[in-house]
Every structure is written in structure tokens, then in C-alpha cells.
Amino acid sequence: MSRLKAGLTWAVMAVLTVGLLAFGATRSSGPSTQEERIDAISKRLACPTCSGESIYVSRASAAESIRNEIARQVAAGQRGDNEIVAFIESRFPGSLLLPPTEGVDSLVWVLPVVALVCGFGGLVVVFRRWQREGRARANPDDADIVAAALREHDDPTDGL
Amino acid sequence: MRPRLSRRLSPVVGLVLVAFFVVLAVSKPREEADVASPLIGNPAPSVRSTLVGEGDFDLSRRKGSWVVLNFFNSTCVPCRNEHPELVAFADEQAGLGDGAELFSVINDDTDEAVSAFFAEKGGDWDKVRDPDGTIAVAFGVAKVPETWVIDPSGFVRMRVVGEVTNSFLSGRIDSMRAMMSGSGS
Questions:
Q1: DSSP states of B10-58 as a string?
Q2: Contact B137 A49 (CB under 8 A)
Q3: Residue B20 located in a structural domain
Q4: Is B153 contained in some domain?
Q5: Which backbone phi and psi does A144 adopt, to 5 degrees?
Q6: Are B142 and A69 an interchain contact pair (Cβ–Cβ within 8 Å)?
Q7: Which whole-number Å values give the CA distances from B92 to B51, B87, B97, in the listed order?
Q8: Domain tally for chain B?
Q9: A126: part of which helix (H) or strand (E)?
Q10: Number of folded domains in chain A?
Q11: What is the CATH number for A79?
């Protein structure tokens, strides 16, 4: 009965974990302000003239130009965030700091989560197996030893 | 054994080092060449701006002639190096009936600095303002100098990153012009 309860608890936890991860990965954060959109897009793109800096951080002339273009396109409201990122990437190849979240590229985001869930499940299975194998069972000799010890405990003068 | 080995190796190492420095000293700088861009073969981005001095610039109104856009900054050393070549190119094209039109696109620079530079170094072609970098981003220009060639139909034909020479630019435009007139006939 207790084993069944433990199994159910693990199953519920696994379902909750996967569900919450899926929800977190796909949920829409709702409407954001133009500034928030500009910042979010700028953080996804690398400065083309400075190594390791995002458009958001860099003060280089090229980065400022790209930030202006992002602001202009956000203000125009004709393109979504991914489309703006794709436009900048088409002009400055290799400027993506984060892989896309759509199409085959989204596997980059999904696979680590799948690996995490599989790893977690694997650990659960291994721990349960260890628990089963490690459980000691008393044989008749052990029972005799325990009985003798109990007798001794009940009658301490017995040995005198 | 070891001292003998190092005695044998030291001339070889010395020779390799000398050869390395000779190669560095005599090697020519990288020659200009076309650079890939998704814009090549596609309609040029819309470019509307104002000119240093006075007047407006609209790239779509230049259709009918070859247009050369040179992205430029008066403080950049390669830009200053290539300037005499651009002056020669502009002069040569002006002498042709259907010569290419050259425009400098000002990248992160002031009107005063640009005007002073052209007054000193020559060159009377139009200078296009790009105060917020819109034109540079539209073409994917991160560093200057960079030169783009647009054909009379408004399609992007060539991109050169770094310094250009008059002979290279004229030669490429001539061959593209010949190719287009050949395919059109």
C-alpha cells in the first residue's frame, strides 16, 4: 500500500514537473511595452563589431544603429519580435546570441528539458531498485540471536 | 646526445623564424573582393535621406544609372587611404556617357568633419547623411569602408568590404555592364 502511495507521489511530481516546464516554455508573457520589447530583442543579438557583447550592452556605433533599427521596427508595429530578430540576422549573419525557439532549432531548447526529465526518471528507478535490493531479511539464526538478546534484557541475573 | 640534437635543431628553428618574418614582410595586403550578402541579386533596400549641404537623396530615383554607395567615416584610416582611388573613379565615370554615380554614406560622423575632409582631399560627389544608422543596417554594414554597387534596375550587384581601388571598381562595373547588355540583346 505504501509502495503504491510512493509511486503515485512520484508520478504526480513527474507530471507536474513536465507540465510546468511545458507551460513555462510556451506561455505568452502577455503584452509588453515597446521599451521591454526593444530590450528583449537587443539581448538576443550580438554586436557585430565587438566580441561577446549583446546589442543591449554594447555602446559601439554599429550596435547603436541596430538598436535604433529595432526601435524603429517595434514602433512601426509591422513585425513581431522573431521577425525583427530574423531581419537583423539576415543583415548581420551570425548575430544570434540565442537559438531560435521555432522549427527544428527549437530542439536546442527542448532536448535539455527532455534529458533532464529522463535523467530524473532514471534516478528514481535506480534509487527504488537499490532500496528493494538493500532491504535486509532476517533468517532463523538472526531470530535466535534477537530472542537470546531479549531474554538477557528481560532477566539480567540470568547469566550470574 | 641532447646537446647535439639541440645544436642540430637550432638552425632549423632559426630558418623557420626568418622565413616567417620574410613572408610577413613581403606579403601583399588582402585584395578587394566581392563579399556575400543576402541582398546580392535582390532589390536594393529603400534609402531616403538628406545630403550634406542641401538636398534630398532617394535611391529609388537613381534607377537608370549604376549607383555606387561608399560607406565612409572621415576618421577611419582605410577610408582615408581609399579616398584618392574614389576620386579617380568618380573622375573616370564622369567622363563616360553612362558612368556610375558615386555617393558617400556618412557613417557615425558629423557634417563639419565630412565637409572639411572633402575640402582638403577632393571629391565633389554627394554625401548622404545616415544619422541613426538606418542605411547601414539596411545594407548590413557594421564597419567602414564598405562599397555597394546597384545596377540601373535597382538590384544590388556587388559588395566590397574594406578598401577599393578605381581599377577594381571600374573593371567590375564594366564587366557587369557588358554582361547585362549582352543578356539584354
A1: HHHHHHHHHHHHHHHHHPPPPPP-B---TTTTSBPPP-EEEBSSS-EEE
A2: no
A3: no
A4: yes
A5: -60, -45
A6: no
A7: 23, 9, 11
A8: 1
A9: helix A107-134
A10: 1
A11: 1.10.8.640
Host domain of residue A85: 32-98
Q: Does B121 touch chain A (CB under 8 A)?
A: no
B38 touches chain A (CB under 8 A): yes
- Amino acid identity at B122: G
**A 20-59: CB under 8 A from B:** 48-49
Task: Give pLDDT tens digits for B46-66.
Answer: 999 999 989 999 999 999 999
A90 chain-B contacts, CB cut-off 8 A: 38, 140
CB B106 within 8 A of CB B129: yes
Which residue range(s) make up the domain with B92? 48-184
* Selected residue with higher pLDDT from B117 and B37: B117
Measured distance CA(B180)–CA(B184) in Å, rounded = 6
β-pairing, B126-128 vs B146-150, is: unpaired
Residue B143 with chain A: CB contacts under 8 Å: 48-49, 62
B136 closest CB neighbour out of A65, A72, A88: A65
Residue B163 lies in a domain: yes
Kind plus residue range of the DSSP H or E element containing A35: helix A34-43
Dump pLDDT digits (tens) for A7-17. 888 888 888 88
Environment class of B177 (CB within 10 Å of its CB; exposed 0-12, middle 13-18, buried 19+): middle
Whether B133 and A88 lie within 8 Å, measured CB to CB: no
